[in-house]
Write a structure and sequence with these properties.
single chain; 1 helix
Length: about 50
């Protein structure tokens, strides 16, 4: 999305989705000036 792509083809869907969520959380933290807290599974949203 940053480079204008509207879709990508990936082989590891879960890993790619996790990476996208992490990138989004980092962007939001930078925009708001807050740190991203780790949840139980090391993600801001906790274990899934």
């Amino acid at each position: 999305a940053h480079a204008g792509a509207w879709a990508v083809r990936v082989h590891e869907v879960r890993a790619t989705a996790d990476a996208v969520r992490v990138a989004r959380a980092v962007e939001q933290a930078r925009a708001t000036g807050t740190a991203v807290a780790d949840g139980p599974a090391g993600s801001p949203e906790g274990a899934r």
